[in-house]
Fold each of these.
Amino acid sequence: TLEKPVYRIRPMDMVRVEITIQKDGRREVMPGEYRVSADGHIPLMYLNQVQVAGLTLPEAAEKIKRAYIDQGYFKKPEVILQISSYAERRVYIDGFVAVAGPVNMPMEEELTLVRAITAARGLQPRASRTDLILIRNVNGEEKKYIINLKEIQEGNAPDILLQEGDKIYVQDSKI
């Protein structure tokens, strides 16, 4: 099935981290903003490097909190993470479209198949509308899906949410 993905932190994302601790009876906030390195780490005070890529925001916040507690730096830190800017995300579209190539996904919005085709400036006249190929990486394995764009455009099937790295191939209509 083509399910909506859960956002996981990626290399090159910009992450805002806010750590709140109790110190001498008052709350102290330690804010910071970090670019996730190519190998998935962020540098944090006292902890050096913390691996966050591949984790959801709540998972990463819990990992940071546990690290501060386990290493004895803070007893009960509150950790809040937010993405302040996303790494570039793309899908690829090829075949019988006006402009083949990468299509950037909006940072905080979902990209659907119809919007990706629109970004590729539409289909060529000979393009098939009934058997587009979507290739998606599912757990490290490439899966192929045949998509009927005509059904989507006529409102008889839901538009498909694309994921980073998806490849869409628009075939010749063979007419």
Amino acid sequence: MGDVLYDDTVWQRWLLRLLGRLGLHTNYHSFFHLWEHDFLEDVYRGRRDFCDAFGAFLRAAGLSPAQIDEVEAACQTRRNQWQLTTRLLPGVKTTLESLYAAGMVMGVLSNSEHPATVLVERLRRLGIGGCFKAVVSSIDLERIKPDPICYLSAARAMELPADRIVFVGHDAEELAGAKRAGMSTIAFNSDPLAEADVFLSRFDELLALIGQPLPQAGRG
């Protein structure tokens, strides 16, 4: 969902500005790569509470207990606000509605701290809940992408074989995992090193791919 249907970096960019005011100056990508791989992955598997993981992350970054309390309070308020005011990226809603009207079976597979029931409600608030046959969350599976079980669980929920599914994603590891699971891949808003069968510059370019065979893997 994040960075494909909507911008998932809003609170992270806000957090980096806040930490900068506290004297912590760091590179965005290296900082949040550490957060995602050393802390957030356990949250997505259901092994750790988000607040506990976030506090440990801030301690590892060198913040004092007082600074951590300040950041946690501000960040929780900001994340709650963001979740209520999230807007879809340009072209997402009309594209999904057109694909649904054309009879395309669609599903959501998300690494998330929330169960699928919460994601379903979030998609409903965004106005696209009715477009998806299945919504699958990592926390319910206790596995995260690129684990093949995630992709195959989504395929079963959609009642389709993996080789009939096109995975649309932005993360290089997740796109590679979908390919290993037997799916075709489309990259949108993607990492610089991502590999996929097709790359989109706009989400609505998906409409032109209906019924078209995907080319072999490679940037294009």
Amino acid sequence: MRRLAGRFIAFEGPDGSGKTTQYRRLISLLQQRGLTVCEVREPGGTPIGESIRQILLHTKDEMTLRCEMLLYMASRSQLVEQRIRPALKRGEVVMADRFVSSTLAYQGSAGGIPIPEIKAVADVAIQGAYPDLVIIFDVDEETAARRLSPLLADVSSTRESKGLDRIESRGREFHRKVREGYLEQARLEPDRHLVIDARRSADEVWQSLLDTLGQHLEA
């Protein structure tokens, strides 16, 4: 795990994949091993980013897909300059709960914005600060839907506090395309992506993450 010092890792996956649970577990493990972790979330992670997050996830106003994509990139740009680059210079492990891969999957593969256009905006926004490693928690849309269904039942009354946000509450077909988008990214850049089968129990997924990450670091 010491080899992760000064590296940037992004956790990715469709809604309902359970990635955030594993993200928390890995952060805890790294800290126990004596590593300093810079934890960031997307969108958000800075005061400006958190304001953008509220607009993106909870606005009741209609938003175009391109506006949505650009707001994500704006939040990301601030995050890179204010937190990610300084942390990497200090030799910390930067752990992001989502990054550019999410925009490619959600607004690109599922939303329909051409991937080259998103990559061009990302190049401007983050100036090369791409993750060293992207860990994708892969789950089929049926399993994800079952995991999200309790929230869907209460979405009208609890969205603002603990229910689904504006992105999560889109339909099953949308989330199928999101999954396909993630897997395509991993196929195109296998050296920079790890794919974890997230259909199993949380403990089984955790063990798979540790095994796969260990093999990657030893390669």
Amino acid sequence: MYQENEETIRRFVDEVINKQCLGIIDEVIHPDYVFRAPGQELNGRQALKEFFNGYHTALPDLHVTIDDLVCTENKAVLLFTLTGTHENELMGIPATGKQVKINGMTCSRIENGQIIEEWELLDQLTMLQQLDIVSIQ
């Protein structure tokens, strides 16, 4: 079962995020999917498709590298590095043309080979610094 969970997460990262094949969401994401991040919650496959459509539009070369992946019987913890070029509006920020490289972590709960729940932490402060939106002295 651990291997099946690892394959589900790797497929999600490779095909949905990196290759922008949003149709794969219907295969690897449970219909009752819930995504949570600080200040954000998404419910269902369609909301996740819209979320990634926005990121793929803003960062057309979006790429996630798996830095570490640990799976248990029903959970997976993914440490990743996200890179991309800010070519369109993102979070209300007009395109800057700047590159971003940030780290994140997702804890996923998996049920019957599909991701049903996720909690994500993404280093948005570093991203805002790289886009010259925020400066920390």
